[in-house]
Amino acid sequence: MHLSVVLRTSGLLAVVFSLSLLPPLLVGFLYGERHLDIFLWPMLVSFVAGIFLWYPWRPLNTRISRKDGFLIVALFWVIMSLLGAWPLWLGVEMSFTEAIFEATSGITTTGATVITGLDQLPRSVLFYRQLLQWMGGMGLIVLGIAVLPMLGIGGMQLYRAEAPGPMKEEKMTPRLANTARALWLIYLSLTAACALAYWLAGMSPFDAVAHSLTTVATGGFSTHDASIGYFQSSAVELVAIVFMLLASFNFAVHFFAIHRRDPFYYWRDPEARTFMLLVLGMVLLVVLVLRLEGNYESTPSTLRDAAFQVVSVVTGTGYGTVDFTLWPNFVPVLLIFISFVGGCGGSTTGGMKVVRVLLLVKQGMREVKKLIHPNAMLPVRLGTQVVDQRVMNAVWGFFAAYTAVFVILMLAMMHTGLDQVSAFAAVATSMNNLGPGLGEVAYNFQSVSTAGKWISVVAMLMGRLEIFTILILLSPAFWRD
Questions:
Q1: Given Cys at both, which of 33, 200, 378, 426 links 28, Cβ 3.0 to 4.6 Å?
Q2: Where are the alpha helices (DSSP H) in 123-173?
Q3: What is the pLDDT of residue 172?
Q4: CA gap 251, 186 in Å, rounded
């Protein structure tokens, strides 16, 4: 491990983060707001600290090792949460713990909040919350991958630690910098298209831009307490559904579909196809239950609400138009459970990812067939590709670690005083980077104790970094030379 590389790279990334405070500062200036020092001081400190960390080590050419990559990723997400909390702590009446919770929820695109009265907050603060999720959606790390190679610093190790999904060795283009630039170009294009669509659907320019940032990031923060339900518009909801789904596909699939000019590439990709079928199946099931229970008088209104809530939850966005916790039967719990699946690997969504769940199902089916035909050679296939056993081992290891961490954090959350349902929902919504939950955390985390909020912060970070990036730092072997 090279401490100089860690410090130098962290310094550069801190400088990049400081520059991200310019947009909310500009928004505040345009709307004539005072007290813009809530952004000026954090921006100045982050910039100076970043330069201080980078400058002494700038001549070194040491390459980033695998260990360095994991440490930089984990440290910087913690740094982002700490720095991101500062403007919220200064600009909103909240405690230090609540500010850390809100910032971490934003950076990890979770969307859980401790703030009420959003409609009364300054526009600059509202925009800042949205921007936190947009940055976290793709990750400042990926931005660093696109920029750092030009400064003589490699980035493959960062990509391996940050990129979601089990097949982290794959790259869309031969050079990682080109990969990162392609990802960001797609991300920016989706954001711009989403903002335009929201504006055409009837949102104000400010709301359109603000919600485009959190829709494409599948984050779920809104500028209104009533979330998307504030607009009471089927057109706005349709735009949200379309772009939540687009952001939930593997960005590599977007890249290849665009590069080859082949829209049917989405259907041929086994993970994307499974995700589309899952969403369709869940929408039909929820519609059926709601109609049988007599909650809605017409099928179109049932379909509208069911489609929005299913897409919002399975993508980990967490927008709301209705209170799904009041829906009958098993539907609220079903929605929380499908958040464990999440969207596709290589997207901005949370959860375990469709590709992992698909591989687990295929492995289970293979074991059943092996019981019938013990001597048969039955490889696991993803489409036409035979999945390497190392990948299957990694998937099973991830599932085991995910389950174990979930149980431990849930028990810890119950120890803070939450009932079983609320503790389950609090950890599920945090680890799956969802936002809304059940019980006491159905709307926000205000009533959760200080200890419970810190547990949620840990859960959000572990979920965003897919467990192993954090767990590996706890291993004594990691710190041995």
A1: 33
A2: 123-138, 140-147, 156-162
A3: 52
A4: 8
CB count in 10 Å sphere of residue 113: 24
Residue 157 burial by Cβ neighbours in a 10 Å radius (0-12, 13-18, 19+): buried
Cβ 114 vs Cβ 453: under 8 Å: yes
pLDDT band with cut points at 50, 70 and 90 for residue 144:
very low
| 433: nearest Cα among 325, 333, 332, 352 | 352
pTM of the model: 0.90
Q: Which residues pair with 385 in a beta bridge?
A: 382
What whole-number distance in Å separates Cα of residue 183 and Cα of residue 178?
9
pLDDT digits (tens, 9 = 90+) for 341-389: 999 887 888 889 998 899 999 999 988 988 888 888 888 888 888 888 8
DSSP state of 65: P
**N- to C-terminal Cα distance for the chain?**
7
Q: Are 43 and 25 in contact (CB under 8 A)?
A: yes
130-149 in b/e burial notation, b at 16+ Cβ within 10 A?
Answer: bbbbbbbbbbbbbbbbbbbb
